Amino acid sequence: MKNIFKIAVLGVLGLFIQSCGNDESSGEKSGAITSNAAERVYVAPGEHDEYYAFLSGGYSGNLTVYGLPSGRMLKEIPVFSQFPTNGYGYSEETVPMLNTSFGFVPWGDSHHPDISQTEGELDGRWIFINENNTPRIARISLETFETEEIIEIPHSAGNHSSSFITENTEYVVAGTRFSVPYPQEDMAIDQMKGNFKGPLTFIAVGEDGRMNIDFQLKMPGFNYDLSHPGRGDSHGWFFFTTYNTEEAHTMQEVNASQNDKDFIAAVNWKKIQEYVENGGGEEIAAEYAHNVFDHSTQAATTTMKNKVLTVDPREVEGAVYFMPTPKSPHGCDVDPSGEYIVGNGKLSTDLTVHSFSKMLKAIENKDFDGDAYGIPILNFDSTLAGTVKEGGLGPLHTEFDGKGNAYTTFFISSEVVKWKLGTWEVLDRQPSYYSVGHLMIPGGNSREPYGKYMISMNKITKDRYLPTGPELEHSAQLYDISGEKMELLLDFPTHGEPHYAAGIPAEKIKSQSKKIYRLDENEHEYAATSESETKMERDGNEVHVYMTTVRSHFSPDNLEGIKVGDKVFFHVTNLEQDFDVPHGFAMIGANTSELLIMPGQTKTITWEPKKEGVWPFYCTDFCSALHQEMQGYVRVSGQNSNVPLKWTLDDEEIN
Amino acid sequence: MKKSGILMIIGSALLLGLFIYPLWNIQLEAPQYPDPLGMNIYINGIQGEEEFDIQNIDGINHYIGMKKIPTPAEMWEFNTFPIVIGGMAALGALLGILGFFRIIHPNWFLGWLILMTFLGILGMMDFNNWLTDYGTDLDPKAIMKLTDSEGNPLSYKPPLLGSQKILNFTAHSYPRAGAYLMFVGMLLTLVAWWIGKKANETMAK
Fold first, then answer.
1. Sorting pLDDT into bands at 50, 70 and 90, what band is A30?
2. Which among A166, A181, A327, B154 could bridge A229 via Cys, Cβ 3.0 to 4.6 Å?
3. In whole angstroms, what is the distance from residue A135 CA to residue A125 CA?
4. Do the Cβ atoms of B21 and B15 come closer than 8 Å?
5. In the predicted model, what is the mean pLDDT of residues A105-129?
6. B37: nearest CA partner in chain A
7. Using CB atoms, which residue from B52, B63, B143 is nearest to A578?
8. Which residues cross the membrane (chain B) (predicted)?
9. What pLDDT sits at residue B91?
10. Strands A211-217 and A299-311
């Protein structure tokens, strides 16, 4: 009887849900999970995922690595934020990574990851990501999955239209979302109009990945929101969406939403590159940090730089044009062929698609509707390829599947819409839970997308998972896009707030992933590459401890002669040369963090003992059956004591 | 006799493969070592199959008090074996040449083979003794002291030939290319003796 009642209730519920379905749904309820979805996302124990997905952490400041289709988190890579889990931003070797012209900045807001490319295809060498708050760009190695370099962007603010990469990784760009005086100066805020600028920074990337600011384009003081490079025929151009062309300095939600159209700025960077190579541009004072992590010395260094080359776009013939685009466009996306530039007008219901070839014609015919601060504005109709009508509400971002289709997220109507390039017809729509922001198709912003999966990254979670108090992780959704209709396969929580992601087939980078750091290549200044090299040295009130770890003991493990008021540097080298055998190091009362040291690596933490006594230290990473025994003692004597330095292992002095 | 002399030369020359290829190989397999740890035993020393295998085998073995894998300087065998093998190869080649010019009787070939077999058996016995010592002569301060059901200390001796479970590891011990070349070479010298003997008999008729 009870069962019959249950079935009846379920039946009624089913009818109710069906009747609430979208008009698009062909008899199945919208967002319905296909019957074999579980099989399609199940990665059996010991098997590997098909794709790596790199999701930015937003306010976590980091980059998280997931496997697709399983949605399993594989690693969190610390980039712009201190990370006590492994000591990033606390250890002496990594502290310089977070240096800026404002001093040490322990936190960042990471937004848009982008994988390096060769001839428009993902090459899997590095992944770049921008920091929005204190403008910076980072480069992360895809061999070590560690941050290798961070460069600060001077004269910029709200580094949001970043870090997008040209198709041969010639440049990484960094735009300015909040226009500011350029260079900075003290002025009345209400004097913004005409006086603030929005510099766009072009950072050259060397063969070894090294970043170097090539030039800054001194653009009018609009908000440069997002960008993408041209590809194929449009390679050599860069496109930036703008909003607040009103140049409002207050109550922007209203005052920056008045113009019917804002612009997409089309920048011919090849022309500017040539201009700069021939001595064009003007060197101006700037102050910015360039932080590089060297894998042989295993330490980061900061170089402060004081000059940057600025270019006035009006000085370079044919370098920059504005294409009118409705209305406060957010995402700026270029299709794999490089012909179509999609402007997602976030306050419009339509999507505006510009044609690159029509744009070139319009430039040739001087089809201008006036100018903005001396930069020609192209006639709207002359560059328009087409409009996707009534896609939804609040379009934000578009990705491509390489099969002639585009996928756009609509924030307000909370859905992903599939449409056809060229005919602009809507083919499919699927709800996303809830208020989707970005979406990602692996390779979806390159010439060669891998159009099998798409993930949407949502801003609001509500009831998708077990509640965890007021604060919830954001939800992501995985869709299979290989067929005509998008199929929702999986929900998974994501760490921080993902603003965009990048994906790559695992096969492309899996085999190049490093297993260990070689001890014989360790050139760290304070490395001890064998137990016989371990020692203590005093230099005034600084004590350097050269320490090693191996399953399952420290050398030395008894240390004496340290006094209250000393500054102790523990330089810990992991002697293991076996895959996935890190050791940890933790010292009671240390005001820093723990260390997590990979095989062959040396890392340093400081400790300033404040109390006399005998204080233990231990390994924090369960390394072997004798992990609990992996500990030692430091004797701390009074400030004026004369206990000599003494370091032993098994009661024997090491020398 | 020409054919048999040539075969004798080739057969004994194949011993020289031991200077290039490993004689024996021991692999250790465990759940947390999906890529087994392995060591190749050459006549002049032991090398890891992968670069850091020896270091990692020593690391595991120290828990149960086993000695470190010996370096060439630590075992007289690694100096003696190359001399014995080189000497036997040279002797075999010399006998082959003398046989080729009919200076000696093919029975010398058989004599060489008997000597070589005897030396081989001695070598295997010595290897087995080393394995036994390595697996049972444990550090009295060993971290883990394990006993069998009778209460005797466990032996961690890897098998001389075959596979065997030792605690959480499975040890596989098998000959490698160097050993196979030596066996083929010894077989060829047997054939050389047989052909030479037959040829001599034909001539005598």
1. very low
2. A166
3. 23
4. no
5. 98
6. A578
7. B52
8. 7-24, 81-101, 108-125, 177-196
9. 96
10. parallel
Among residues A521, A620, A618, A514, which one has the least CA distance to residue A87? A620
A578 contacts B143? CB cut-off 8 A? no
CA distances to A18, A34, A133, A177, A433 from A102, rounded to whole Å, are 57, 52, 12, 19, 39
Q: How far is B63 from chain A (nearest CA, A)?
A: 9
Query: CA–CA separation, B59 vs A550, rounded Å?
Result: 9
Q: Tokens representing B201?
A: 């008999």
Report CA-CA distances (Å) from A405 to A114, A399, A421, A488.
Answer: 21, 9, 6, 18
How many Å lie between the alpha carbon of B52 and the closest alpha carbon of chain A? 6
Buried/exposed code over A4-28 (b: 16+ C-beta within 10 A; e: otherwise): eeeeeeeeeeeeeeeeebeeebeee
Q: Which of A550, A577, A624 comes nearest B52 by C-beta?
A: A577
Q: What pLDDT does residue A13 have?
A: 44
CA atoms within 13 A on the CB side of A266: 30
CA distance readout (Å), A180 to A7, A106, A159, A587, B55: 63, 24, 12, 45, 58
Beta bridge partners, A515, equal none
The pLDDT tens digits of the residues spanning A357-401 come to 999 999 999 999 999 999 999 999 999 999 999 778 899 999 999
Q: State both tokens at A234.
A: 């449009």
The full set of domain ranges for chain A reads 52-508, 526-653
d(CA A68, CA A51): 5
Structural domains counted in chain B: 1
pLDDT band of A17, cuts 50, 70, 90? very low
pLDDT band at A23 (very low <50, low <70, confident <90, very high): very low
DSSP state of B49: S
What phi and psi, each to the nearest 5 degrees, are found at residue B115?
Answer: -60, -45
Q: At what angle do helices B107-136 and B177-204 cross, to 10 degrees?
A: 160
pLDDT in tens, A165-213: 999 999 999 999 999 999 999 999 999 999 999 999 999 999 999 999 9
Task: Measure in Å the smallest separation between the Cα of B55 and chain A Cα atoms.
Answer: 8
Looking at the partner chain, which of A578, A625, A626 has a beta carbon nearest the beta carbon of B56? A578
Least CB–CB distance from A626: residue in B51, B52, B143? B143
Which residues of B fall within a CB distance of 8 Å from A624? Answer: 63
The backbone region for A443, taken as left when phi is positive above 0, alpha when psi lies in -120 to 50, beta otherwise, is left
Helix H or strand E segment including A214: strand A211-217
Tokens of A57: 């952490």
CB pairs under 8 A between A and B: 17
CATH number attached to the domain at A526-653 = 2.60.40.420
Chain B residues in contact with A652 (beta carbon < 8 A): none
**Residue A32: predicted pLDDT:** 57
Cα A417 from Cα A419, distance rounded (Å): 6
Question: The domain A52-508: what is its CATH number?
Answer: 2.130.10.10
Classify the phi-psi angles of A158: left when phi > 0, otherwise alpha if psi is within -120 to 50, otherwise beta.
Answer: left
Residue (of A552, A621, A547) closest to A583 by Cα position: A621
What's the rounded Cα separation, in Å, for the pair A593 and A346? 43
Average pLDDT, chain A: 94
- Give the number of other CB atoms < 10 A from CB of residue B116: 23
Residues A220/A267, Cβ–Cβ less than 8 Å: no
Which residues of B make CB contacts under 8 Å with A? 51-52, 55-56, 59, 63, 143-144
Q: pLDDT tier at B83 (50, 70, 90 boundaries)? A: very high
Q: What is the CA radius of gyration of chain B?
A: 21
Give residue B86's domain range: 2-204
* A201 in Cβ contact with A153 (< 8 Å): yes
